[in-house]
Amino acid sequence: EDQVTQSPEALRLQEGESSSLNCSYTVSGLRGLFWYRQDPGKGPEFLFTLYSAGEEKEKERLKATLTKKESFLHITAPKPEDSATYLCAVRGNSGYSTLTFGKGTMLLVSP
Amino acid sequence: DGGITQSPKYLFRKEGQNVTLSCEQNLNHDAMYWYRQDPGQGLRLIYYSQIVNDFQKGDIAEGYSVSREKKESFPLTVTSAQKNPTAFYLCASSILAGPDHNEQFFGPGTRLTVL
User: How large is the average pLDDT for residues A50-61?
Assistant: First the structure.
C-alpha cells in the first residue's frame, strides 16, 4: 500500500523567510510524485510532477526536489500570496492512474 | 476556456435523501475521478473511470454511485446509505497516455452539508 506523510502539518513564516516542506513516501515502483497548491474552499492546483531521484523543477519562488524516499518543496523569499495548503501525492505501480495523497502542509506567510 | 466544472458549489441535503453532484470536463481527458476531502485528512478516492461505460471503486466507495455515459461527464450520487456525507467533494480528470504524464487536474469542488 502506497503511503505519503507530509510535515510539518502547519508552518508560519514571515515574508521573505525561506523554508522547506517535506513529503516522505513509500510506494511500490514510483511512477510520479505530484505537488499541488490548494486555497481555502477551492480545488487543488497542479504545480509539479517529479519522476526520478535527483530531479528538480522550479516555478517562481517554488522549487521541488526528489530523492528515493522523500520530496521537498523549497519556498524562497515567500510572499503572503504563497499562503495555501500544499499537497503531495504519489502514483505507484499498484494504481495505473490513481494517486495517494498526503494530508498537506498549511502554509501561512505573514507580511 | 478548457477546464473542469462542478455544480452546485454548495449543496444541502436532508438525511435520507439521495443527491447528485455534477462534474463536466472539456479537456478531452480519458480518465475522471471523484475524491472526498475532510478537515485534517488527505484526499480520499471514491470512484474513478478510465473509459466511457466503465468505472472502478476507490478506497471509500460505500454509499456512493457513479455513471460514465459520456466522456465529458462523471456524475456522483451520494446515497442515503452514506452515513457521514458532509464533506468537500472534488472531481478531477487526466489523460491516459501510458503510465507517465498523467497529472490530474481538479475542479472547484462541491461542499455538501447534511442537515
Answer: 95
